[in-house]
TrEMBL record:
Residues 84-275 form the Rab-GAP TBC domain. It is a peripheral membrane protein. It comes from Drosophila mauritiana. InterPro entries: Rab-GAP-TBC_dom, Rab-GAP_TBC_sf, TLDc_dom. This is GTPase-activating protein skywalker isoform X6. It comes from the Eukaryota. One of its GO terms (cellular component) is cytoplasmic vesicle membrane. The gene is LOC117135215. Residues 404-576 form the TLDc domain. Its main location: membrane.
Length: 578
């Protein structure tokens, strides 16, 4: 059952240390941590304080900022405040940071222990080893400084999480993250934190499938080619027979298995708030630092590392020559690495992998089904056709023609989206012609399928990959971005022509410039999809008139011959369960 901080934890720390004067070294750790190991770390050998440093911020201060919605201020505090590794702040701070990402209803008291009893038949911790779920990578079950009891607790947590989240099929980093959390909190608290990270919709924290895992390391590789060009070119040059992919496949282990624990804890302070992009930044700094050491230190000479750069990188990380504060400062000083940029690279990489229909391992085909398995259920199809004015097009269109049209549209959707049932969110026929109403009913849904039927019976639209609410999201400088969305967005025409117009960037790795990434834009006066020398779809605030042009983002022709159109019906669909 959960432990309570206070006298018990302090007395246990005293017993473990054996020295009363040093008991404060362990006050921040949970009882299932081998604190005698942590004592050997040099976290107490930090540069002496001069007295001029600003005071470290408290949990209460950060809590108040989060409650006020000042997430950017919280981000800056987390980046700049180097709390000692043993600081008790993390016992409260980490659960609060992870909890803000929770999308499900708050767990009832005792929920976790009920799940434990359901899975194991008892809440008593078994002395026998527990078989781990298939999604765990057995070679990377990193315990860090957990005791044998702590490791058994970590085993139990990932089992319960696997039971509660059956969609997790491959997640090698989940166990190490579990172990790190357990250094500062109870079993139940660690589980609730993980549930928040796994269930997060707005930010990515933990990959949960093999596809996501592969897309992630390939994304890191693509970013590194641009932001650490000298380092990646150097490693490619000294190992001409080694594909660059082999180095980046293990990128997360540079951090999770390589870096000293005090570095890792400070990285987690930021990661639990900002997401996986923090790890991307740290990986780039590691590459640059290793490159510099390779040029000045014989230990990392080409002859010594060329046969196994992967292991050499992890060994380098174990004795990384910078402090946690300097590592993070360098990571957050990398320019041009915005969340939007990373998201575009990620989506582009994911789409390229899917288009090639095979994972690098060659063990799993990602072939897009052309059968009716990818269509909505027959009842859902009936519901759509009864509700929809755009899909029907004409009153006399036969049901078979409607089915073919639906089949065409469904075959264009991303494979994962076809697994969900469509639901009509907004239609001008029922909800009126108002952009305000459109936002109220649609803006929190992601993705959405927008379809327009003109007064000339043309039917076209767009698959919009991001929430329309993102029109209000501000960047790191506090400015609203004019355009948002990702490369998964595409245009289509259904009648009289049938055609799909995907993002131009899917064709290759070439940088096509800003005008090729103008996916979605919106404000109180209009909606726009596609840009660059024209707007693919533009609608006014009354959702009555619009225009369509060719644009650079999708390289599309005007979606109706006249260019200008009058809207007869606008419908927007979401997908249940996403």
């Amino acid at each position: 059952m959960p432990y309570h901080r206070g006298g018990d934890a302090s007395s246990q720390a005293d017993k473990l240390s054996g020295i009363v004067e040093e008991s404060d070294l362990y006050e921040g750790f949970a009882p299932h941590v081998e604190t005698s190991e942590i004592k050997t770390l040099d976290f107490y050998n930090l540069p002496k304080q001069t007295g001029k440093e600003p005071a470290l911020r408290s949990y209460t201060e950060i809590q108040q900022l989060l409650q006020q919605g000042k997430k950017r201020d919280v981000k800056n505090i987390l980046r700049e405040n180097s709390w000692p590794i043993n600081s008790p702040i993390r016992a409260q701070l980490w659960p609060m940071l992870c909890g803000q990402h929770q999308t499900k209803q708050q767990m009832l008291d005792g929920f976790y222990w009920e799940m434990v009893h359901q899975v194991f038949g008892t809440t008593e911790l078994s002395e026998k080893p527990i078989m781990l779920p298939a999604f765990v990578d057995a070679t990377h079950c990193l315990p860090y400084h957990l005791t044998s009891t702590g490791r058994a607790v970590a085993d139990r947590i990932v089992n319960v999480l696997g039971y509660d989240c059956p969609d997790i099929t491959y997640s090698p980093v989940l166990y190490p993250i579990t172990s790190i959390l357990l250094h500062f909190m109870s079993e139940e608290e660690a589980y609730i934190c993980l549930a928040g990270l796994v269930g997060s919709k707005e930010k990515v924290f933990i990959n949960q499938t093999k596809l996501q895992h592969e897309v992630t390391w390939k994304t890191v590789m693509q970013i590194a080619k641009k932001h650490t060009k000298s380092a990646t070119s150097y490693f490619q040059r000294i190992c001409p027979g080694l594909k660059l992919e082999r180095i980046f496949m293990d990128w997360c282990w540079w951090i999770l298995a390589g870096l000293p624990f005090q570095h890792l804890v400070r990285i987690m302070d930021c990661y639990f708030h900002e997401g996986i992009k923090v790890l991307y930044r740290v990986a780039l700094v590691i590459l640059n630092l290793f490159h510099k050491e390779c040029q000045s230190n014989n230990e990392w000479s080409p002859d010594n590392i060329k046969n196994d750069i992967g292991n050499a990188l992890i060994k380098f990380c174990k004795k990384i020559p910078v402090s946690p504060a300097k590592l993070l400062h360098a990571a957050f000083s990398i320019r041009g690495l915005s969340t939007q940029y990373i998201s575009r690279i990620f989506i582009k990489t994911e789409m390229l992998l899917k288009s090639r229909s095979v994972l690098t391992s060659g063990s799993k085909q990602l072939i897009k089904s052309r059968s009716s398995d990818n269509l909505p259920t027959s009842q859902s199809q009936v519901n759509i056709q009864m509700m929809s004015h755009t899909l029907t097009i004409r009153e006399k269109l036969h049901s078979e023609s409607c089915r073919n049209l639906l089949f065409t549209l469904w075959s264009w959707l991303p494979v994962r989206i076809t697994m969900y049932q469509p639901v009509l969110l907004y239609t001008t026929e029922e909800h009126g012609c108002s952009l305000t109403t459109f936002y109220v009913r649609v803006e929190q849904h992601e993705p959405t399928l927008l379809m327009i039927k003109t007064c000339n019976n043309e039917v076209f639209g767009a698959y919009c990959s991001s929430r329309w609410f993102e029109r209000n999201v501000k960047d790191d400088k506090g400015q609203r971005q004019a355009y948002f969305g990702t490369g998964e967005t595409f245009l289509f025409s259904l009648y009289p022509e049938r055609a799909k117009y995907p993002w131009v960037g899917i064709e290759g790795d070439k940088d096509l410039g800003h005008s090729s990434e103008l996916f979605m834009a919106a404000d109180s006066k209009m909606i726009t999809i596609g840009g660059g020398e024209g707007q693919a779809i533009w609608m006014d605030e009354n959702i009555r008139f619009g225009k369509t042009d060719s644009c650079k983002t999708f390289n599309n022709p005007p979606l109706c011959p006249s260019g200008d159109f009058e809207i007869r019906v606008l419908e927007v669909y979401g997908f249940v369960g996403i």
